[in-house]
Amino acid sequence: MRGAAEATFRERIARNRRNSLLLFVTFLVFVLAFGYIIGYAWVGDPAGAFFGLVIAFFAGGLSGLLSYYAGDKMVLAASRARRIEHDDAPVLFNVVEEMAIAAGLPMPKVYVIDDSAPNAFATGRDPEHASVAVTSGLLEKLDRDELQGVIAHEMSHVRNLDIRYSMLVGILVGTTVLIADFFLRSLWWGGGRRRNDQGNGQLQLILMIVALILAILAPIFARLLQLSISRQREYLADASAVELTRNPKGLADALEKIAKDQEPLEVANRATAHLYIVNPIKRFEKHSRSLFSTHPPIEERIRILRAMETGGVPQTGRDAG
Q: What secondary structure, in 3-state letters, does 140-199 show?
């Protein structure tokens, strides 16, 4: 993949990164504005609006510290992943080592999940503390080129800092839900201070109505933004994987095999589903065009990779917009 095709390929990666960053900044601004409005509506003056920001800071800070230092361990434990060494799976180790070198990254820790459903994910706070986990089904059902495509996809998540990015977005979603829940509960118990002066009292009433609407809708909006970012990062990781392997066919064949496999991944759940290369919850994968999907449509991902086999770089669907 040289010349104009490669230039277009890199433009595509750059566009995906810009889209993800734009979504993240939008998300961050939304959370800050949400906290400010809730604080003003609850306390009744501009200075009091920072009350919402303080709650957001502490709630987000605590969950952030926990996620940053222990999130990967919790995910791996919840997925029943066991750490392995080179002699336990030499082919897997060699492929991971190859892709780590190609990506210019340190060797991650390698885990295996004893499950016949083929799938994989990466986690960790940065490349120096990254882990890659694959199922035993993936090792049994994929050939070496396909396995290389999957590992390249996961190493791309590490290189692109998606593993940290996902954690930050998760913290923003959690903070949004906490603020909304706090506000709604405070209304239920008659909380909030009412202003007696007419001007500020009317403004507080208006913001109270706005805050109430936001408190109901914000968690839904936050979740949609999170899922949109997640879909963007999957497209980006696919493109980055091809950059590492120079072999779009390997990843395309792997995605086809994983998509056709009907075995459910028993250890997966809605909290960890977005981490996997393909949504492990089959009933959600069938509706992957939905706004509530954690992954872009797999047929769209395969179509793009097939086009790359002949040097083409088609536009993605609506998710890559």
A: HHCCHHHHHHHHHHHHHHHHCCHHHHHHHHHHHHHHHHHHHHHHHHHHHCCCCCCCCCHH
- Indicate if 85 belongs to the active site: no
Cα-Cα-Cα-Cα dihedral of 250, 251, 256, 261, to 10°?
100
Using DSSP's 3-state secondary structure scheme, residue 173 falls into helix
pLDDT digits (tens, 9 = 90+) for 66-124: 777 887 888 899 899 999 999 999 999 999 999 999 999 999 999 999 999 999 999 98
Q: Which H or E element spans position 212? A: helix 198-245
Among the listed residues 6, 128, 146, 154, the single catalytic one is 154
CB-based contacts of 79, cutoff 8 Å, min separation 6: 113, 121, 133, 267, 268, 272
Given a contact cutoff of 8 angstroms between Cβ atoms, the answer to whether 298 and 259 are in contact is: yes
pTM for the predicted model, two decimal places: 0.76
Q: How far apart are CA 133 and CA 120, in angstroms?
A: 6
